[in-house]
Design a protein that fits this description.
The protein is mainly alpha-helical. The protein contains six helices and two strands.
Length: 118
Amino acid sequence: MPVRVLVTAGTVNDCKEACALIEGFAAQWLLADRAYDTNDIIEKAISQNINVVIPPKKNRKEQRVYDKQLYTMRHLVENAFMHLKRWRGIATRYAKNTSSFIAAVRIRCIALWLKVLA
């Protein structure tokens, strides 16, 4: 379930913002795909006592071990994006300004959380 939203320019790499997204979270695992295998993200997660479940990039000199069985649960992260993008306004970024877009995303997140908690 979504817990934090961060909007960036369309040309910003997601990896650059990942550290800001996990800042201050108390989590047991960080599940992400291979694209998020950066030293900054891994060091940030480890400093917060979060176990990293990210497959190493193929060009990494030292291949890290990760829990392959737990990694299969990453589809839940993708499902959260799918549920958010079911709203056409979010999928197409229909809002004219950033604050309206963030408001739409937060409303959708609240709706998703209410389904889970009900």
